């Protein structure tokens, strides 16, 4: 009620250059066919951003449909158990559809409407972006096709059903490793052929300009709220702000509005089975700059520039790149990096479940794992703000399997 | 010098009142050894040979060329193999045009300067990188220029007048007009539309205009050859490799036959 | 942010008599062993209700942990498609754990803490109350056992996993029909034996006094918010307010704070395969007063007073009784009744998914089905407020099965 | 008149310096016909017969008596069968105490008044409804009173002093002290605790005190019989039925034997 609109800052701060570059990263490395549509999109985005009625409708939907502002929750029981810094959770898990992704699809969905597009497409890894896209497509009565790697369809089955129930078509992608990057390739192929009628809703702060900027702006509500809530609830800003990084949308959403404050910003990458081998998805910690999916950024690639297969237990982090602005902030020294392995993420998942009664998404569990580790070495009057980017319901099968329980058997019988 | 070579290709074809046949194969597909033989077969009929540099994520390509990249990489093809194949074709056909085609990251990973140097040493005449549009091509074009390599540009049906001008201004060698809004291997657009576009491009630029993406039949090739300076055939040639997988001689024979047919469709003497 | 506490009314209005009777309904029909513990509970409840620090902590958790206030969303696209009254949704689906049930478990959980109990038990049907109980038990570090019918464990498998991941033990109940009423019987049996150390968190406005009152008071935030939000967003109150009825907690939560206004109040019962036969759960429409689970209320029973087996596609409505206060309001003419069959609920589920991008719980879909039917006969400037009591994620398997898709196959493969 | 009959039962036992054996079986378990025979067997040893009225949701009962209700209802037992069985026992044992025991809804569905009338006609002496505590028993007690039926009350370990007084004030016939905090069939509490409770109840009320819930062995029965006016055996007798399912004569023999053993444990002449 009486939700305070003033916490939302409509100015575009730290904008990229005209070509969409954040320092040397970003840009518009796209096929010629897409350059026209991208220019059209850019113009439409900037015009809509200045349009008060567009912004009012976006905020109205974020509040009345998505459920913003999401709470800021002091995880007292967890913090006490760790005995170090206070861990504060930004509860994006409480948004409609269960992850931050919807902040962005509401924005892009409205923009698609404004541009008169009748069809949207999306790529998805964890399925959260696909669900969020299918959701706004249903609401705005647009046709919706979602590309999803077959491996991801398996690990995030409930999200596949959800998309179908929302009226979207989920198109399995078999090429490559059947995960997020392959889905992105397929979506780009679709868009190249359909760009005149179709709006491509990219799910993270990656892709050719203006996507990284646009998606960041749509997610900035996370950090803007969190900043205001911290001041209101605790009378101060946190010492550290942390988020997991797949493409980086929940990270930029939280961190961008805090970057001008004296706060340590930390991005947590997926270390999979460990950073030593190839079974991880830590693009910044273990990769180097390269060009993929329309932008120049940190990538996991071999010596020849071939993109590597990645591994993470969490489908949403299983991507060999990262948003270009994160790469720029990292190189500029404004962003610290950390990582969590599959096992550490699972442990954090259990720990939060048992101490706070919250089942986090496996993606978010990576940020939590790093926060818990960091908190242990800090004092109880310090504060770590963690983006709880999504809820773990979509990960039940994965987690039960790991914890050695056969899901179906548990359902059928055991005490 | 190579700048001349592409130009001479088109001039030679013009003299023969026909369009140039621009043939594409992915280097190293299905493996480097067979690929070399295939490229030599292609080089018999094609005026300009496009050598695809395999990439793990060929997002502008349809299933056929995607699969070619996958086969090539699975066979262990590295960039030195690509350059070796290029040089092999160059040696066999000193007068042919050779264009390296591929994705930005492969060149970026080598360093643009080193890449351009190697490409030039391998005898390439030009380079076409699908995902380096004019906006991002400053450093890359500089590197190509330093090694006297053409920077080939794509123009698409969705390209605005301004973008066509930009392409005309920044391209050299030829302009590659994309005959459909989509990926390689899809269905070609209406010939009359393509003709209108190519005619207007001819008005904007003195460069030769080649048309490609989706040309699969001799009839399509012939109809496009009637007004374009060159006709690019890619997926159609590549499909010979998948169709005859495991049987190298049949593969080579099939490619030879289809190349010859396409070469014939370029319309010797029939061009106005 | 700046959430307005003033909308919460702390006065207990329309209280039952000292014995917990709402007119002739309600009461304390419990075994002698439980009468002492019930008296202790009643005293603790009243004391805590007057305790400002208790209430402040309850509201703080409702806001920062549960995500209250939940939005009020005008389902414009659905309303337009129907062409009648405007349908307004109270978004309880956006609460932590995904249903209104948590409003109550936060309250009872805090009370259990205050009473020094180290263990909680609960019965559950849809699993939502079980999850909500397991959640607060985890947060408050209490041991938790949840009784659940084996049939319900099958149809709401994801909720079984969730409870287990939260550290609760789910105890399958095989007796009777293996549904909610049997789980309640088992929980009562446990409590009779353990009442000195154990707090029984009942999940709806039923059971012996003080449960129906207590649970109503904990859920009244729903209607209190909705009332204030209606006034703020639309400048008026709705013409009709509607909710589905299992035991009646989401209905009382919404309707109680609106009962003194000039608003039609409608409770929607589960008509299962139709009210003609025995395959439904419409206790008021098709039952008669009787005594079960500690209170006198409307029940589905045979001529001899034996409780009948019920049927509803939604586990949360599959109960042969109803909260006594609803029975009293119905007899007093203050509550209208309606019903929806399984098929109508499924259709409403699809309709909301396709028009608004919201997957409602199958329970809530019953209220929606009735609202859609009623709306069609009303004018576009009339307004129906519907309690969207929960989200449908827990029902994916059921729905996919009905829609003729094999869930596993869809996950593995189809486009 | 029936008020006298329960009283005389206890007086008779007192005269014999022993506790009364109060035996429970569910009416109609496993079916009305066999149930009749079982009740007659029980009636040979028991001073007071508790006839359980089957109910679909016996929340105060453990697995054994739950199962008895289920068997009885599955066999089609109706309330008129229950009353018929009651009457049959009454006819066989004119001097025995008979108490109908069950859940509120069964009586409520008939109407309290009609229920009491039928119970009286069937020869019952009293009624014990598990889930009608004194707070809710106004109408019900009035109906019982009108038909000269005792209203038996439970007192539990969790009952406060006030509640014990309330029970003492509103009960008649006897007070049933629940020997454990839990459901029927669970493990009995410590004998010394029970004794303390029963002694204090004796101080509060002039009514006989019977102890039940969880008494399963002859030893337990004997130790309770040492201070209680009556010992209630329920699950233990009911279990004979499940154990010998399908074999009526074995069932009857087993019940007979265990009843006799329990009757012996009541301690003829041994009471102080
Ligand atoms: C809950 C959640 N968190 C994080 C991510 C990672 O994406 P990003 O780095 O763009 O926030 C995903 C992606 O699906 C997600 O679902
Ligand atoms: C989402 C939802 N709505 C409604 C109900 C029905 O319960 P009640 O009538 O107490 O609101 C349930 C019960 O589990 C539920 O989960």
Question: Can you offer a commentary on this structure?
Answer:
- The complex is a heterotetramer, with 2 copies of chain A (415 residues) and 2 copies of chain B (272 residues).
- In chain A, the strands form 3 sheets. A 6-stranded mixed sheet of chain A has the order 3-4-14-9-10-13, with helices on both faces. In chain A, strands 1-2-12-11 form a 4-stranded antiparallel sheet.
- Chain A has helices spanning 32-50, 52-66, 76-82, 101-114, 128-139, 150-155, 157-165, 180-194, 211-234, 249-255, 283-286, 324-331, 342-356, 362-376, 396-402, 407-412; strands at 21-22, 25-29, 72-74, 86-91, 119-124, 143-149, 169-173, 198-200, 240-244, 264-272, 288-292, 294-299, 336-341, 383-388.
- Residues 406-415 of chain A have low confidence and may be disordered.
- With 415 residues, chain A is of the alpha/beta class.
- In chain A, helix 5 links the parallel strand 5 and strand 6 (143-149).
- Chain A contains 16 helices and 14 strands.
- Chain B is α/β, with parallel strands linked by helices.
- Chain B has one domain: TIM Barrel (Alpha-Beta Barrel).
- Chain B is 51% helix and 14% strand.
- Chain B has 12 helices and 9 strands.
- A 9-stranded parallel sheet of chain B has the order 5-4-3-2-1-9-8-7-6.
- In chain B, helix 9 (191-204) links the parallel strand 7 (175-178) and strand 8.
- In chain B, helix 2 (32-45) packs parallel to helix 4, helix 2 (32-45) packs parallel to helix 12 and helix 6 runs parallel beside helix 7 (138-146).
- The longest helix of chain B has 18 residues, at 248-265.
- Chain B is globular.
- The model of chain B has no long low-confidence stretch (mean pLDDT 94).
- At the A-C interface, helix 2, strand 3, helix 5, helix 6 and helix 7 of A face helix 2, strand 3, helix 5, helix 6 and helix 7 of C.
- Bound molecules: pyridoxal-5'-phosphate (2 copies).
- One pyridoxal-5'-phosphate binds next to helix 5, helix 10 and helix 14 of chain A.
- Residues 99, 101, 125-126, 128-129, 204, 244-251, 316-317, 361, 363-364, 389-390 of chain C line the site of one pyridoxal-5'-phosphate.
